[in-house]
């Protein structure tokens, strides 16, 4: 059967995350419904990883196998005609049956946006976290160095230890962060993280901890100790979901 790869952009504001769930709207569920309407049969749409409720994506990747004989461009047009306007298929491509959106992935890039000012925005508040206290970006950059490279990120993992952000169970909590950049333009702070894999809520917990450093509540030198202690209770709060976006899934 043809194997179709999709690159998907979505606004996660009104969805209960990527993963299909009964009786609530999810991104995977919406796409599977559209695929079934076109192919006249159910096909499981497998994503490169799960995103939590309220998290967005510019470059989520998924694949599905189908008996339907449509060209990739026709799949793109047909799906976009059926999907709600907050889910868009950016591209569709026929790939080898060996391609798997999750298992073939070599890494991901996430971006987190923070608005650092004393009042919330009226426009675009569903895509950014407003932090009212002043943030010291130099302290945050100093703290972020500790996360680079291969570490056990158990201290920065969500409460569901049974699965990582890729939806894989029983996996190690060791990840390799290849890049962690902090940039600031006027009132907006952007944190970009690239890693080979991510644990559940790992990016949001790192962000929440760095914000505490920026507010002067933690010392930048604490990060190494937090990693070594492997205890989620010692790290900072989980940043809210709306500031997070899956930018790209990397394949070899």
Structure in words:
This protein has 252 residues and is an alpha+beta fold. Helix content is 21%, strand content 30%. It contains 5 helices and 10 strands. The chain has helices spanning 27-39, 72-82, 137-144, 202-214, 222-229, and strands at 3-10, 46-47, 56-65, 87-95, 105-116, 129-131, 149-152, 174-185, 188-195, 244-251. Strands 1, 2, 3, 4, 5, 6, 7, 8, 9 and 10 form a 10-stranded mixed beta sheet that branches. Helix 3 (137-144) crosses helix 4 (202-214). It is globular and about 60 Å long. The protein starts with a strand and ends with a strand. The model has no long low-confidence stretch (mean pLDDT 94).
| Low-confidence segments | none
Shape: globular
Note the main sheet. Answer: 10 strands, mixed
Oligomeric nature of the chains: single chain
The number of helical runs is: 5
Keywords:
single chain; 252 residues; alpha+beta; 10-stranded mixed sheet
Secondary structure blueprint with pairings:
Elements lengths: L2 E8 L16 H13 L6 E2 L8 E10 L6 H11 L4 E9 L9 E12 L12 E3 L5 H8 L4 E4 L21 E12 L2 E8 L6 H13 L7 H8 L14 E8 L1
Parallel strand pairs: 3-10, 5-6
Antiparallel strand pairs: 1-3, 1-4, 2-3, 5-9, 5-10, 7-8, 8-9
Helix pairs in contact: 3-4
């Amino acid at each position: 059967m043809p194997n179709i790869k999709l690159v998907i952009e979505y606004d996660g504001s009104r969805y209960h995350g990527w993963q299909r769930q009964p009786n609530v709207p999810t991104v995977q569920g919406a796409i599977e419904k559209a695929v079934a309407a076109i192919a006249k049969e159910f096909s499981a749409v497998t994503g490169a990883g799960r995103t939590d409720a309220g998290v967005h994506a510019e470059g989520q990747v998924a694949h599905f196998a189908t008996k339907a004989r449509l060209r990739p461009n026709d799949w793109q047009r047909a799906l976009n005609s059926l999907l709600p306007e907050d889910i868009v298929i950016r591209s569709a491509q026929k790939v080898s049956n060996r391609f798997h959106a999750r298992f073939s992935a070599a890494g991901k890039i996430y971006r987190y946006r923070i608005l650092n000012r004393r009042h919330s925005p009226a426009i675009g508040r569903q895509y950014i976290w407003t932090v009212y206290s002043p943030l010291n970006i130099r302290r945050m950059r100093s703290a972020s160095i500790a996360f680079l490279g291969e570490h056990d990120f158990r201290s920065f993992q969500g409460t569901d230890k049974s699965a990582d952000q890729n939806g894989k169970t029983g996996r190690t909590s060791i990840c390799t962060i290849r890049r962690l950049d902090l940039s600031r333009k006027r009132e907006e702070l952007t944190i970009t993280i690239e890693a080979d894999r991510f644990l559940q809520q790992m990016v949001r917990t790192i962000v929440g901890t760095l914000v505490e450093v920026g507010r002067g509540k933690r010392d930048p030198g604490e990060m190494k100790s937090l990693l070594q202690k492997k205890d989620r209770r010692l790290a900072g709060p989980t940043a809210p979901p709306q500031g997070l976006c899956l930018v790209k899934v990397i394949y070899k």
